[in-house]
Amino acid sequence: TYVVTDNCIGCKYTDCVSVCPVDCFYEGENMLVIDPDECIDCGVCEPECPADAIRADTEGGMEKWVAFNAKYAALWPVITEAKEPLPEADALDGQSDKLETLFS
Ligand code: SF4
Ligand code: F3S
To answer: What is the pLDDT of residues 64-83, one digit of tens each?
Structure first.
């Protein structure tokens, strides 16, 4: 599966949504997640994210993000169409500690 990681927080560019063939992105207040059970592993979304926030779970250290994505995919509504990024997207792209300071 692919997963959304912390640099999506506060950005939410949503380019990923428009390319996913199975509509498996879910939308929280300030980030998206992928439902790991629905993702077909096509990899199309990964290069589309301007914030480089999408990762394959085959990369090391992704267990935490797979669990995070699964947890919130079950709680948040599906998003099937791209929308405007969050207003601070460009300013927050690349900021560290987003999960601790910005996630809501
Ligand atoms: Fe959707 Fe493919 Fe990305 Fe999985 S890897 S979230 S199926 S675009
Ligand atoms: Fe987030 Fe990147 Fe998609 S910032 S909304 S994972 S395009």
So the answer is: 999 999 999 999 999 999 99
Coil, helix or strand at residue 48? helix
**Token pair of 102 as six digits:** 């910005």
Q: What is the pLDDT of residues 32-57, one digit of tens each?
A: 999 999 999 999 999 999 999 999 99
Tell me, in angstroms, the distance from the centre of ligand 2 to residue 80's CA: 13
Residue 82 Cβ inside 6 Å of ligand 1? The answer reads no
Question: What domains are there in the chain, each with its CATH number?
Answer: 2-78 (3.30.70.20)
Answer whether 8's CB lies under 8 Å from 15's CB.
Answer: no
Encode 52-84: b = buried (16+ Cβ within 10 Å), e = exposed: ebbbebeeeebeebbebbbebbeebeebeebee
